[in-house]
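Late entry, nicotinamide-adenine-dinucleotide complex.
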Amino acid sequence: MKYMPVQNFINGQFVDASTAKTLPLISPIDGIELSMVPMSTSADLDAAVTAAKRAFPAWSNTPIKERVQVFFRYKYLLEKHLGELANLCSEENGKTYSESVAEIEKCIELTEFATSLPQLVTGEVLEVSRGVECRTTHVAIGVVASIVPFNFPSMVPNWTIPNAIALGNCMVLKPSEKVPLSAGRLAQLLKEAGLPDGVFNIVHGDAEIVNAICDHSGIEAVSFVGSTKVAKLVYQRATANLKRCLALGGAKNHLIVLPDAIPDMTAQNVAASMSGCAGQRCMAASAMIGVGNIDHIINKICDEARKIIPGENLGAIINKASQQRIEKYITDAEQQGAKILVDGRNTKVAGKENGTYVGPTVIDFVTPQMSVATKEIFGPIISIMRTDTVDEALAIENANPYGNAASVFTQNGGMARYIIDRANAGMIGVNVGVPVPREPFSFGGWNDSKFGVGDITGKSSIEFWTKLKKATTKWNSEAGVNWMS
Ligand code: NAD
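Prediction complete; structure with ligand written out below:
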């Protein structure tokens, strides 16, 4: 084992979980055993919630301008340790080093946004009657939980950590059992940045601990990012226990390509979108709909895909089960009559034979009923469908139950606008393969890609992580109030 067994982080200390049940942590890059992860019990969660509850009064009463000082220092520490954090991210997740660097840079950007929160949560004040004021204040909600997936070991935790904590809450993070190492390092950096003990805690585990979070009476709010199947379970369970919940789910993102799209730029964007992070992104292009004759662009997409080399500029798939699942989708499509233009099955990387890789795959002549057209594949695969009209393309896009992202590639502004207005997704791109909004704009899909109100990042997250206090004040006895006074 390369690293010590993973521990929980409670009240500012790394501690063993109260369980003998562990899972091995295997690097997808080369199959070496990195560590082992404890499957914590509800007793471990109790300890974390107790620590967070104890820290809450002092932390939430610290002025926000002081709270964000921790995040100015945390941002500096992320920058200082960028290379080390990126290496850890690649080792446990399998993405390439440059993708991991981009992930940590995004953590820095998310933290920068949190440092601007004092300017954004100033509340409002209005003289509602002579001498009478109404004033609003955003107040922290208490102990909150953040449950995260495997595909961004640092970035998705940092979607929630800086904002929720800067706004005065105390947090219990449940990392993915597939990538538990980065979270531990983030905890160390938060402590080094001066975050008081108990404000941030980590409990490792699987479904059992997620269920315990949803049931725990000491937790006020639950944010979740992961697959739609689990997002629905978490949303239903947490809200049934009267907690506020925001649960982001899976995706099936469509790119609509029109014949007037710039061929090289479109091909490069499509190939990058479908293969970045080995397709294991909720914003990855998974289906493409060509309107009219776009053969010249498809040829270029294949050329771009062939430049993507597993183990070099294409990372690994998280584990063997996922690799096999992805390959089965390709085989099923082939058997149903689709044409595999670039085939990523049976990929081996020399010297890393125990790693789990799928090469870039381009599948043409897919029909809307095939599983590669309807299911989230989460691999470096693009499934190409063809239509005669934009409305047929929109009908395919809008029939899919997800609604994270959609993009259009065209030089026709009117047509782009037509698609922006009609695509049934929360994040839309025009000539952009991965249309992630940057802060202060917020991240969040629609339909089966998100359950709950509001988004998880940016300005929208302020509403989720705080409750609004409304104070009506009158300090002069002669104030002219003639209602309900
Ligand atoms: P997952 O749903 O399997 O796991 C997410 C979290 O839920 C993990 O912490 C895991 O331990 C826990 N979990 C797993 N099964 C559970 C169960 N039955 N009951 C309770 N908890 C359970 O997701 P994953 O495989 O880690 O991540 C990939 C998925 O996440 C993809 O579907 C991807 O689209 C989605 N994702 C979505 C977004 C978004 O913003 N919408 C962002 C990143 C990832």
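Residues 42-61 form the longest helix (20 residues). Will revisit in the morning.
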